[in-house]
Amino acid sequence: MTYFHSVKLHEDKCKGCTNCIKRCPTEAIRVRGGKAIIDDARCVDCGECIRVCPNRAKSVVTDSRELLKRFKYNACLVAPSFFGQFRSEVSLGKVLASIKSLGFSHVLEVSRAADVVAIAVAKHLQGATVRYPALSTSCPAVVRLVQVRFPDLIDHFVPFDAPMEVAAYAARQEIRAATGCSDDEIGVFFTTPCPAKVTAVHQPVGQGHSQLSGALSMAEVYADAFKSLPKVTHEEPVYGSACGLAWAVSGGEGVAIAKDDYLAVDGLQHVISLLEEVELGRLRSVKYIEGQACIGGCVGGVLVVENPFIARVRIARMSQRLVSASLPALDLASSALALRQTLLPRPFLQLDTNIEVALQKLNDLEALVEQLPMLDCGACGAPHCRALAEDIVRGSANLSDCVFILRKQVSSLAGELMDLAGKLPPAMGRG
């Protein structure tokens, strides 16, 4: 299968420093020949490698606003985390107006769709067939993480789309109703705080086809919206609620859905630790788990501008001032909220298609682990010794890639050479 990825590696900038291989939560990166390489099947586009790369050899590829020229009407879907980039005294309506001035005919808050999704999920959790703890689908990096590393937990996901997809569906519905235009005349764009949501637009999971036309870098949209802010003389109406706005930060989603009967975990390494507990059956008493790949939630994405802790405070202050929505809640059919495709695993650990060969390779892998120093230094270009052993049995690495094994081999070879140097052929005599 061909995978789309928004995280791109710039080989000319890569120095082979190994920072990224140690931080990648799915062990998708190796360093070979002095350059990093990314395994498409393992990568979940979380952006951790972008954060830690000192050479800026990784970046996020987002869509350009040039795409707006293709459509008669263009809607910008404003993520809740976007508001946290502005000072808390700036009104939400003015922020929306500044974004609209960038060439959009419509501007809508994703928080409004978050309210609808929260109601649907809360109702779903009351069902008799739900597998607890139920898992949120709002973070695409976490969804892909489960597909890659925890395939047995896929049926724990709630069967609903993320708010950005629901908001896109609602935007198209509202624009068609107001203008009478056809669907292909409408462009719907999301202000994304992270690369995972770019990937979710271009290769959606559980949807088949995204309702979005593209994903715009939050940092780029913010820069232009901030410049236009002083020129804005009016405010756009605000329809989202305080609960919907709180989805920008870790815990906001859980409170809206499961009140006190939930766990909120942020940071992909922490998510992995918690999912390991779920896999062992230790958290069945918890109703809902809200997992966010970024520290602090979406306010901590790699495409945001403001410090996530400052943004969190700003979101809280804005929420306090937010009055009840002046529009009724989105009236959407349940089919508009539901995932349209079954989530499936993305296996990558298969050592061979032949079960007998795979078992033999597994035995070889365990034998190699016994030979390796288990220091997990990363000098071999793999994140740890077991990963190197796996690469060796797959044929993409050699035992001598381990510097400690290589040193032993060189020392042994040097000893043999010294012994040979002290010996003369019998024909030469002893002189």
Give structural notes.
By secondary structure, the chain is α/β, with parallel strands linked by helices. The protein folds into three domains: 7-60, 2-Layer Sandwich (Alpha-Beta Plaits), CATH 3.30.70; 65-337, Rossmann fold (3-Layer(aba) Sandwich), CATH 3.40.50.1780; 355-421, Electron transport complex subunit B, putative Fe-S cluster (3-methyladenine DNA Glycosylase II, Chain A, domain 3), CATH 1.10.15. It is 40% helix and 11% strand. It has 17 helices and eleven strands. The protein has helices at residues 19-23, 48-52, 80-83, 92-100, 110-124, 140-149, 163-179, 195-202, 218-228, 242-245, 252-258, 268-279, 308-321, 334-337, 355-371, 385-394, 403-421, and strands at 7-9, 29-32, 35-38, 58-60, 73-78, 106-109, 134-135, 186-192, 214-217, 262-266, 288-292. Strands 6-5-8-9 form a four-stranded parallel sheet. A hairpin with a 2-residue loop joins strand 2 and strand 3. Helix 15 crosses helix 16 (385-394). The longest helix is centred in the C-terminal third of the chain and has 19 residues, at 403-421. The protein is elongated and about 100 Å long. The protein starts with 6 loop residues before the first strand and ends in a 10-residue tail after the last helix. The model has no long low-confidence stretch (mean pLDDT 90).
